Amino acid sequence: MALHITNNQGIFEINGLLNATNTGLISNYFETIIDKEKMITISLDKVKDIDKVAVKCLGTLYKKAIVKNKIFYIIGSENKKVRDQFKEQKMFYVLRRDVF
């Protein structure tokens, strides 16, 4: 399944498989957005599967945004595959509850 990113009223929804194959694209895409926007929200609710490389990529983006004083949210803790992978990689602190 291909990866799709949709900007839905300021929330970037990722749909599909998020893995080592496409983390370079994800990184480039969101680094550009981090440079332009004050607030970035990424939703992983529609992610079908995620691997540890993708979790580390999102963690790196989170850290880059914080260093640049940007508000950066990753939501998707309701998605079991996402939640489990973030916990396994000890990155669960990056996920926010889906409160939007």
Unreliable stretches = none
Strand pairing plus helix content: what structural class?
alpha/beta
Helical proportion, percent range: 25-40%
Order of helices and strands: EEHEHEHE
CATH fold field value: Transcription Regulator spoIIAA
* Tally of helical runs: 3
Distance between the first and last residues' Cα: 27 Å
Instruction: Round the mean pLDDT to the nearest integer and report it.
Output: 92
Number of domains: 1
Q: What is the C-level CATH assignment? A: Alpha Beta
List the helices and strands and how they pair.
Elements: E1 4-8, E2 11-18, H1 23-36, E3 39-50, H2 52-67, E4 71-75, H3 80-88, E5 95-96
Parallel strand pairs: 2-3, 3-4, 4-5
Antiparallel strand pairs: 1-2
Helix pairs in contact: 1-2
Summarize the structure.
This protein has 100 residues and is α/β, with parallel strands linked by helices.
Report on the structure:
The chain has a five-stranded mixed beta sheet. It has a single domain, classed as STAS domain (Transcription Regulator spoIIAA), CATH 3.30.750.24. It is globular. The protein is built from three helices and five strands. Helix content is 39%, strand content 32%. α1 (23-36) runs parallel beside α2.
Question: Which descriptors would you attach to this protein?
Answer:
Transcription Regulator spoIIAA; alpha/beta; STAS domain-containing protein; STAS_dom_sf; 5 strands; 100 residues; five-stranded mixed β-sheet; STAS_dom; 3 helices
